[in-house]
Write a structure and sequence with these properties.
Elements: E1 5-7, E2 10-12, E3 18-23, E4 32-38, E5 45-51, E6 56-58, E7 66-71, E8 76-81, E9 90-98, E10 102-108, E11 112-116
Parallel strand pairs: 2-11
Antiparallel strand pairs: 1-3, 3-8, 4-5, 4-9, 5-6, 7-8, 9-10, 9-11
Length: 118
């Protein structure tokens, strides 16, 4: 089964940085790519997305600290996370909506853990 593959999670101290990557090889008709996250006991929430036309969208909680970017050739999306806070701790999921499956039925990655702690 085709699935986006994430990498780059880990443990970082408050104020530190991490860069997440997600490769969507084998997925066609991509509309956008992005990231959601889910903290323990909380619902999954949007972090950032980037459409094919380059339009980006960020959660208010990460604006000014996180930057999403995309490599069209390799179908890879990146999330540069700076000034990390303990409240950023969560499992981060790659999100890939496509025209083929319908925008309401996106591909999801398996998730990568980000822990911000001293």
């Amino acid at each position: 089964q085709v699935q986006p593959v994430e990498s780059g999670g880990g443990l970082v101290q408050p104020g530190g940085s991490l860069r997440l990557s997600c490769a969507a090889s084998g997925i066609s008709s991509i509309y956008a790519m992005g990231w959601y996250r889910q903290a323990p006991g909380k619902e999954r929430e949007l972090v950032a997305t980037i459409r094919n036309d380059g339009l980006t969208n960020y959660a208010d909680s990460v604006k000014g600290r996180f930057t999403i970017s995309r490599d069209e050739v390799s179908h890879t999306v990146y999330l540069q996370m700076n000034s990390l806070k303990p409240e950023d701790t969560a499992v981060y999921y790659c999100y890939v909506p496509t025209w083929g499956k319908g925008l309401g039925n996106p591909y999801w990655g398996q998730g990568t853990q980000v822990t911000v702690s001293s």
